[in-house]
Amino acid sequence: MFLEVDGWKTDIRFSAAHFIPSHTKCSRLHGHDYFVRARVYGEAEGEFIVDYLELIQQLKIITQRMDHRLLVPVKSTSSTYKIENGICTISYGDKEIRISKIDVFEIPTASSASEEISRYVAEELRKSLSGNKNIEMIQVCVDEGPGMGACYEIKFRE
Ligand SMILES: [Zn+2]
Q1: Ligand 1 centroid from CA 114, angstroms
Q2: Which of 4, 66, 86, 118 could make a disulfide contact with 152, Cβ separation 3.0–4.6 Å?
Q3: CA atoms of 87 and 111, how far apart (whole Å)
Q4: For 91-146, how does the pLDDT look when each residue is reduced to its tens digit (9 = 90+)?
Q5: Residue 125 C-alpha to ligand 1 middle, in angstroms?
């Protein structure tokens, strides 16, 4: 059994800028309105698998960190960045981006593609749900637009 929340209908969304160094078009700095969907698999404990409102609130807290910021992947092997005097300088290929540190979110992933954003959101959600022993698995999907998204699953136990 699973419980599902759909950010398109429950306003779990954020807007962010990113770049994909290895991709011709997407290596240009650009942005998306991202929407998050999540499923929580398990048996109900009492009446619920998890409280919908708690799940929506946690996902909003996690995603708001990225809202209206440039996502800078900390573990990237195709781009580098440094922060000095409040300025973040990102370099990849023959490009350089300079931006105020406060406008950046350092995402602890290798890339800022939806695949890695969904992994990050799922790992953060796992931390906030770790006390729920009835949960078997979570799935988090991050949509870059209608009908286009990547999902990441984390098993809580085998
Ligand atoms: Zn993009």
Answers
A1: 8
A2: 118
A3: 21
A4: 999 999 999 999 999 999 999 999 999 999 999 999 999 988 999 999 999 999 99
A5: 23
